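User
Here is a favour to ask of a fellow structure person. I am asking you to supply a protein in sequence and structure-token form. Please set it down just below, with no commentary around it:

Assistant
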Amino acid sequence: MSSTTSRTDSLHVALAVAALVVVAVATFEQTVSRIYLLNFSIGGPNATALLMFLLASAWVLPLVGMAGARRDKLLAAGSLAIPVLLAVSMLTPPSQAVLATLGVQLVVLPLFVLALRRSPTSVAPGAATGLLALVAVRSALDLAPLYATTIGKGLLLITGVLVGASTLWIVRGDLPTQSVDVTPLALFVFVEAAFLGAPAVLATWHLRSYELTAGAAVAGLVVGVGYLAVRGVPDRTTAPVLSGLFLLSLADLIWFDLLGSVAALPAQALAVGLLAQGVAGARASSRGWLATLGLQVLAVVVLFLHVSALNAEYMPGPVFALTHDRAAHFLFVLGALLPVSVLAQGLRVDHGPGTTDSRREPTPDPARRSAMSAVGAAALGAGTLALPSTLGTASEPDGTELTAMTYNVHQFLAGERGEYNLDEVLSVIEESGAHVVGLQESEGNRITSGNVHGVRWLAEELGYHYHYGAPTSAASYGVAILSAWPVTESELVSLPTYQSPPRLALRVMLDTPAGELPVVVTHLQTQQEGTPEAIEMQGEEARAVVDLAGSDEETIVLGDFNVEPQNDPAYTVMAESFTDAWVAAGKPEEGGGTWPAADPTMRIDYVWTANGWSVTEAGVHGDGEDSDHRAVMATLRR
């Protein structure tokens, strides 16, 4: 094969892998989000949770192998089916959408094998380029997943078409017939899709700067590709060192936070290096799919435990006891499976036909380096798109009169189909003209919500400032604030609870033209169907909110209090220190229902004001299609 042909093949394989990674990561997120909607509702888990195990897709590899001489034609046909499956996943309810996204996963893994057979050294730079494209596109979409917006859906469909076209290129001609061990690549996709490939998730885990985190992640991917282009695949003997450094970077991102956002750089660079080692050492093996299947199943179990830890209230007792306060531990174990797969590959001995030496490294050649350099340049160009921001560009009111709103946004998922409610929430806020918005259940930035950073998305669209409030690591429902004015300081406190996930209260100081404005956003626990201990604990939580709010006469408190008027003790505690804006506006105390949104019978969401404000108007906004709560707004005058 000539140098030019080799260079062309390497580049095509790299671009094919990039498109496959975009599709694989996007549909992985969509699969977990749809299964979450099906299983982890108020009714608790049900049998369809078993669908999650179809993410362990390696069982399809021996079935494809049984096709014999027709195998490559079958793979080409499967790749052409990807755009159809993507379209089905975007147009159908969760029960059908999840089958379509799982179908994509089943097609993608054999296509990865095809790429490995054609040019294993092109796989790692291709995967890194796909991740950089995802970061760039999600940044352009204000950090929404591709399948959450109209533009994103179109781009995802186009990428699906590119998968088909690129696969038709790499399947042509003679290819080696043996299978290869695709385990490291499969685990790489798992880890990147779950959290490492979404800089917004890394940023909100400890409330780091998104810009710095995205920049570090982009730099890490570019460094990883650049190293491969210049130096080639790291020697197999360095695998333990790379693995140890990768685990240290993960530990810092998840627990220690010593390097802050910078830790994303070595984590991504080392992930690319480990992937390059794993795919370069992929051996011919008739049983390689068993190792992939085993580690994929383990990854699914660990991911399920992580999801359970982040959604404790929906879990049955035994699962709750196993996962409570352990979300970070399971996240670390999931990330650790990548280096484990690479190390295990080097230790296994396969005496089957066609076995090759797992320690043998590919000989560097100019064609490979040229192709990697081209991909690296494209990756750098894509990475530069990841950082633009227009936060806080809306015109600021003078602060003497303002509209405050409280809104429980249901983790940015709503409706019978569980679609994202980003546009609907935006419309509700714009309709109200709110200048300050307290959000509850704003922690959408986790795998069960497709890693959507809904708070930042709203801030970008409104031109507002925001404070995320609760870090994802707190495993709470989340509280956050959107504001026409900058946030100058903040304080987050954990409230006492009774058999409930963490409940939080956030106090921020806003810098308005009329002076500093203190605002508190909170979300109290439920009454658990009238449980005396829960009702009493609500009172304790309300007292903690009052203490946090302090004595400033211009304080505003916004929240989902899960208590009706005069239903002691929480309402009484709040009414002793603050004014119920709904009542102060002359509205009937028994009116203004906010829950359930489709047919509200209970008023449990409130705007409370200190004595420095007069209330001129109050209202309820939204409907059952926007969220499971309606929003409450009040127009205030100093």
Observations:
- The domain at 3-386 is CATH 1.20.1250 (Growth Hormone; Chain: A;).
- The longest strand covers residues 503-512.
- Confidence is low (pLDDT under 50) at residues 40-44, 349-364.
- Residues 13 and 115 are 6 Å apart (CA to CA).
